[in-house]
Structure formats: structure tokens, C-alpha cells
Design brief:
The chain is of the alpha+beta class. The chain has a domain of 61 residues. Helix content is 21%, strand content 29%. The protein is built from two helices and six strands; from the N terminus they run ααββββββ. It has a six-stranded antiparallel β-sheet with strand order 1-2-6-5-4-3. A hairpin with a 4-residue loop joins β5 and β6. The chain is globular.
């Protein structure tokens, strides 16, 4: 019985130590859950700068939300870091800002 209580105590201490981690994941550029302000923002780490802002190559998982655009017949993804919508271009396998003029 003593081993059971010691095991439970170890679990509680482990959970207490992990309790300080931000459940929403890292927020680059802020000081949350052990991440410091010295980290670069998500778009600076993962985006590619171009004349229309930043675009992202390949799969991305940082979107805060997704809405379907009846006008464009595609999904738009909200980037919480740059505060704008993006759309996926299958031909380029990239996400571009909605309204960006591409050559």
C-alpha cells in the first residue's frame, strides 16, 4: 500500500511540474509557458517573405480558425500572428495571404 501512495505522490508532483506549460502550445515572440520574448515570431521562423507579405510552404498547423469563402470557393485560414487570412494553393503547395497579387 505504501508503494501505491508513493506512486500517486510522484504522479501528482510530475503533473504539478508540467502544469506550468502553456496548453495552447508555444506563442513565439511572447513570454508564455517557458518561452521567452527572444524567440522569433512564427511567420519569421516558418514563412517566406515576398512582396505581398509572407507565405508558407507545405502543411501548416498554426491557424487559429478556418472559414469557407463562398466567393472564392475555398477555405481561408486565420493567421493569429499576422492577423490576416490565408488560402492554400495546391499547385504551389503554399499558403498565401488572401488578396496577395501573385505574378
Amino acid at each position: 500500500m505504501k508503494k501505491v501512495f508513493l506512486g500517486l505522490a510522484a504522479c501528482v508532483l510530475g503533473l504539478a511540474a508540467v502544469g506550468n506549460v502553456d496548453a495552447a502550445g508555444p506563442h513565439h515572440g511572447h513570454s508564455h509557458g517557458g518561452y521567452h520574448a527572444s524567440h522569433r515570431p512564427y511567420y519569421r521562423e516558418h514563412g517566406v517573405r515576398f512582396g505581398g507579405g509572407y507565405y508558407y510552404r507545405g502543411y501548416q498547423s498554426h491557424w487559429a480558425s478556418r472559414v469557407y469563402s463562398v466567393e472564392y470557393r475555398r477555405y481561408h485560414y486565420w493567421d493569429p500572428y499576422l492577423k490576416c487570412y490565408y488560402y492554400y494553393s495546391p499547385a504551389a503547395d503554399c499558403y498565401y495571404p488572401v488578396g496577395a497579387i501573385l505574378n
